[in-house]
Amino acid sequence: MVELNNISYSIKGKHLTNGVSANFEKGMIHLILGPNGAGKSTLIKLISGEHHPNAGSIKIEEQNLQDIPLKTHAKFRAVLSQNLALSFPLSVKEVVMMGRYPHFEGKATTLDDEICVKAMQLFDIHEMQNRNYLSLSGGEKQRVQFARVFAQIWQAVPGKSRLLLLDEPLTFLDIYYQYDLMKKIRDFMVVNADLTIIGVVHDLNIAAKYADTILLMDDAKLVKHGANQEVLTKENIYTVFKVEVENRFEVV
Ligand SMILES: Nc1ncnc2c1ncn2[C@@H]1O[C@H](COP(=O)(O)OP(=O)(O)OP(=O)(O)O)[C@@H](O)[C@H]1O
């Protein structure tokens, strides 16, 4: 689905991404782990097209990312970035509706409304749909942003597979919602098999439980990419995080 071929990205001579190659298969959750400053968010920004690699290529379903028109891309690719800030007072429903903008011209259709309602119900924010987004707590805002990106990729797009990019989506959530959200993502994928998810997380337990593959990054490079149990070994964790763990992380 997504193919990175030896991509590098640097600013003022500093490598933020250095020679990264990886394939992300469709229908799977791929989670990126690594210490602060390893280049995880940069990788997400390269895959989303926000940054352009200085070297190497990125292909989405065998098409060069740079050849995909932005408007087409937005119909099948949604991004939940770290920055959830909005400076004007929109209601929760209006924020979720932003996810539908690539799908309609001028006025939202009944279908767009229905999809927003379903997405708000999925993330337990339906009851607060008329609230001012700016008045919400950090965790509530994060659930609204989940509803927005899911509204964007709610339906299959003919001839395209859907892609969801999540950059530290769990930061503001309590432990209940962290697991709840990951379970909802998994359940959604069971009935939406064309979807691929690539996300950045910091919690090794969450990665062990929900990732199909894990990318371990350090110092702008990809250290390891593979099935979660292959990657989350004591040795790999020590190499990258300099932290001793007792055993490999088990899926429970
Ligand atoms: N615009 C920029 N100019 C210079 N350096 C940058 C710029 N953007 C990011 N960096 C640096 O690139 C490195 C990688 O940043 P990135 O945000 O990708 O890391 P990360 O792995 O997502 O880190 P974290 O876990 O802390 O969010 C960091 O050292 C960061 O300071």
Automatic annotation (TrEMBL):
Keywords, alphabetical: ATP-binding, Nucleotide-binding, Translocase, Transport
Organism superkingdom: Bacteria
SMART domains per UniProt: AAA
Domain ABC transporter: 2-244
Pfam family, one: ABC_tran
NCBIfam families named among the record's database cross-references: PRK13548.1 (NF010068)
Function: Part of the ABC transporter complex HmuTUV involved in hemin import. Responsible for energy coupling to the transport system.
UniProt protein name: Heme ABC transporter ATP-binding protein
Organism annotation: Brumimicrobium aurantiacum
